[in-house]
Structure prediction request, 505 residues.
Amino acid sequence: MAENPREKIEDENVDDSGLAAVKLQDFVRDLRLQLEREKSERQVLLERVQSVVGERDRLESQYESIRKDFCTLREKNANLEAKVKTNEWELQQSENKWKECDQKLKKMLVYVNTKEECFLNDCSRRQHTDIGEQTLLSELCAVKETLSALHNECKLQKECLGQSEPTWASSEMRNKEISSFRKQLDDANHLCQQIMGDNQNLQSQLNCQKMEASEWKRQVEQLQCTLKSECEKMQREVCKAREEQKVEEDALKESTLGYMVQVNNLQCENNSLRCRLEESAQRIATLESEVACHIESVTTYRGELFMLRRTFDESQKNFNLNHEEQAKLRKRLEVDLELVCKENRELKENMMKNSVSNAMAKNCDVLSPRLSRRANNEIEQLRNQVSLLHNEMSFMKRQIRTTAPSDPFDHHHIHHPIPNTSSGTFSTVLPQTPPPTDIVNVHAPTAPPTKIPCWSSANPTEPKCKKPEISLMNNSTISSKNGTTKDEQQKDGREDAGPYTPCSK
Prediction:
């Protein structure tokens, strides 16, 4: 018996459903590969972010150490400045002390000079008085000599008078002259003794003043020596302090210049590190925004995929139900066909054996169109159900194709979404476009149709078992694999009506 066209169409439909399942499995495999690739890329991005964060922490710690070093350098600089200020203050104090000593020495010198001038004036005055006293003494000596000469003359006159007998008048006059002369002599002696006492007093005063002047001179010389030694000592200390201050200032300048160079270098490094941190922060912000966008797109794609899975499962259920109904109808048609063939054979045998009359032939002719119409009606119903199933499958595939992204292999222009691993669930991501479908031979032998398990009712984020991997197909390939065209299907349907039509000849 030749192969029935209905069985051929059903086999082709089964082959198309098997090809669709294979394509869907390929598509799911590509999706999983894409998700694994996205997961690895996200892991790489997370590692890069962690490295950037570690580098930022290292730079912050380095910046903190640099800032501490800068603070210590600033404290050292402040201590050195305070030490310089204290040295300057001590130098100023030493200079003030030296100035005070100098002023004191000048005052002492002025006092000594005034005392010396007074002493010299006294000495000159006393020298003048000594000269006057010496002249007075010389005069007194001359007076004494004259007095001694007069005394001698008086003695001679007395002797002469003693030898001669003077008169009374002359003797009285001489006595008066002698008394007056004695009085003058006593006055001169008294004056001479007074002058000699004054001279002795002046000489004692002069000796005391000479001793006092020598003492003052000795004290002045001692004070000059002490002041000179102190001045030399202060000058040595001032020179030493100036040299030490100069050395410290030079060291401080060198250390300050070194510190300034280090500070400038640290500031440059800090600025470069800040720029790098800002760049890394901007990159992290862009990556976070991209990750958020990808997560949103992943959630939307996951929702759409979940809805598509639900629609696909519903269509798969309908397809399985229709397939079961087709199998039942096929069995019924086979039974009816066997009955009709059996009746036709019996009728033919009866007609050939018994030469059935024309009325019986007419009845057979009337009966066979009824059976053929009944078979045609059932075939038309089956064909309508198959077309409805094909329409539902094509609508579902068009919907999957419209919701799918553009290109799953374009990694240069599109940032792939990153699955959110922090929540513990694995989010599925649709690829950008369905993979290219290969041209499959429609007439190749395939396995018998198997019922695909329904897995869309479970949560897509927590699969209980391994889900079947599905793929999308093009409308052209579907139409080419589902049995060429509707005209050919109708033609096959018309050919299917052949075996049901009894031979009227």
Remarks:
- Residues 23-157+175-326 form one domain.
- The chain is about 80% helix and 0% strand.
- The two ends are 21 Å apart (CA to CA).
- The helical segments are 5-163, 168-354, 358-403, 475-481, 486-496.
